[in-house]
Amino acid sequence: MAGLGRPPVGEVDDLASLAHLDEESLLVELRTRYNKDTIYSYVGDILVALNPFKKLPIFDKKHAMKYKKVVKSHVPPHIYYVADSAYQMMQETGRNQCCVISGESGAGKTESTKFIISHLVELCQGKTALEQRIIQVNPLLESFGNAQTIMNDNSSRFGKYIQLKFKQGQVLGAKINEYLLEKSRVVRQADQERNFHVFYYLYCGLDEEDQAKYCLGSASDKRYLSNGAGPLRTHKKELSEGYDQLQTAMDLVGFEGLEQENLFVALGGILNLGNVEFDGDTDRSSVGDPELGLKNAAALFGLDPMQLADTLTVSVTVTRGEQIRRNLGVHKAADARDAIAKTIYGRLFSWIVNRVNNLLAPPVTVRQSDIAEIGILDIFGFEKFDHNSFEQICINLANEQLQFFFNQHIFTLEMEEYKREGIDAASIKFSDNKHILSFFMQKPIGLLALLDEESHFPQASDLSFLEKLSKNFKKLDFFERAKDTSSTYFTVTHYAGAVRGLEMSTHDRQSRGCNVLCWLLLAG
Fold it and tell me: Cα(135)–Cα(139) distance, rounded to whole angstroms?
C-alpha cells in the first residue's frame, strides 16, 4: 500500500523524485511499470526505455500528435518527447542538439533511433522525397551492418552518429558517421549466430541466374557462413522480404543500378575468397585447388588469379627502397585471406555510408551558419560472450567512455553544484572509471598502444602480446591472466562486470595487399 502522499508503486514517471533513490527501489518501480506495458520512465533528463519484445499501440499517428510542443509533465514518458524536446530546443535557441542512445545488446537501441528520426520528420511535417530517403537509410545500413546474435535477431554490429540538418525547422539533409564495424563477423560467427544479413538476402532474394552471375554457389559450402545454410530454409520468407526492403531502400536513397550490382559483386567475391584453401607447412604455402574460391574471387574482383594467390601467400615489405618478400606458412596465409576479406567488407561499408552522405547532403548553396542539427548517437551496449575479441574490447571501451560521460553529467557536475549551494553531498558515492580508461588508452603503456607496438614485430604472436600485458598490468586488480600460461585469454573487469575469455589477435592488423584489392574493387 502506498504511504501517505506517496504515489503507488509503478505510478512515478520520474524516478529521480522517489523518496528512496537506491537500486532496489528503482528496480521495483521499473519492473512494476514494465508489467503494465509502461516501458518508458524518466530519471531526471534521462529516458529509461525497456524493450517490450512485442508491438505496443503507442507509436501510431495519434500518439505522435500528442508529443508536439508539449510540456514534459503533461504527458507520459515517451521516446517521442525526447525528439520533441530536442527539436523545440533547437528551434528556440538555434543551438545544435544531441540524443545519446545506449544499452545492452537487445535493449532496443536501433528501434529507438528509428522512432526519434521518424518523429523528427513528423515534427517538421516532412512530406518530401528527402525525408522519405532519410527514413530509408536505416534499413539500408541494417542490411550491411546488422546480424543475428544469440541475444538479438537484429543486432547492430556497428555504431553510428546520425546528424539531421535543419534550416528554419525543415530538414535539409543528413550525414552519418559509422564506428567500430564488427569486421571479424565476416569471416567467422559463433555457434547459433549469423553473418551480416545481406549475405543471406542474396541467397533468398536473387534468382538462379543472378546467383550464378555473382558466383554464389551453395551456401552450405561457404566457409564464411560458419553455421551453414540453415537460416535459408527456416527463415526464407523473412530473408526474402529483407532483400526486397534492401532493394527498395537502395532505390529510394538514390543508389544507381550499376552501384547496386557492384555491391553484390563485392559480396560474392568475399564469399568466394573465404573458400580459398592452402597447401604447405609453417614456412611456406601455396593456394590449393584454384577451383575452390580463387578463380571466382579473382574474376569478381577483376584480378588475375596468380596476382591474388601471390597476395595471399607472400608478405612484401619495403625497407630503404628495397622490396623484401617473405613466404607465409599455411596458418599465416589463412590469416592474410581473412584479413583481406574483413578489410574489403569494411571499406565497402564505409563506401556505402559515404555514398549515402553524398546523396543526402544539404544543398551547397545553403550557408553553414544557417544550418542547425540534431545528432543521434546509436552505439553498441556492453557486451560479454563466451569468447570475446578485439571488437568486444572496442565496444566495451566505448561504453566505458559513455559511462564516464554519464558520471560527469549526473554525479560530478551535480556535486559541484551542490557544493556551490552549500548542500552536503558527502553521502553520494559513485564508481569512477577513469582508471579503466587509462588502462586502455594511456600512452605509451596502455592496452591499445601496446597492441599497436606489438603488431609491428614480424614474429609477434598472441602469446607474446599477452606476456607484454602481464608484465605491465599484473598488479592491477581489474586485469587477470588465465592461470594456464599457454593460454592467450585474459579478463578485464569493467564498470558493468567482468569480461572473461578475451583474446586479442595481432593478425587482425596484418591486412597485406588490402588497399590494392579494395581500390581495384571499388574503382571498377
Answer: 8
Name the 3-class secondary structure at 49. strand
What are the pLDDT digits (tens) for 227-280? 888 999 999 999 999 999 999 999 999 999 999 999 999 999 999 999 999 999
Nearest to 10 by CA among 21, 19, 26, 20: 26
CA distances from 400 to 289, 383, 418 (A): 47, 12, 25
**Which residues of 168-277 form beta strands (DSSP E)?**
170-179
- Residues 293 and 313: their CA atoms lie apart, in Å, by 15
What's the half-sphere exposure (Cβ side, CA atoms, 13 Å) at 162?
A: 24
HSE, CB side, 13 Å, CA atoms: give it for residue 98.
6
Written in H, E and C, the secondary structure of 374-419 is EEEEECCCCCCCCCECHHHHHHHHHHHHHHHHHHHHHHHHHHHHHH
Active-site residues: which are they?
A: 105-106, 110, 152, 155-156, 381, 383
Q: In Å, what is the CA distance from 490 to each residue of 118, 307, 442, 456?
A: 43, 39, 19, 22
> How many CB atoms neighbour CB 294 within 10 A?
23
Could you tell me which residues are beta bridge partners of residue 375? 98, 163
**Buried/exposed code over 460-486 (b: 16+ C-beta within 10 A; e: otherwise):** bebeebbebbeeebeeeeebbbbeeee
Yes or no: say if 475 and 489 are a contact pair by the CB < 8 Å rule.
Answer: no
**Chain segment 458-509, per-residue pLDDT in tens:** 778 888 899 999 999 989 999 999 888 888 889 999 988 888 876 666 555 4
Report cis status (omega within 30 of 0) of the bond before 305: no
pTM assigned to the model? 0.87
If one counts every other C-beta atom within 10 angstroms of the C-beta of residue 495, the result is 16
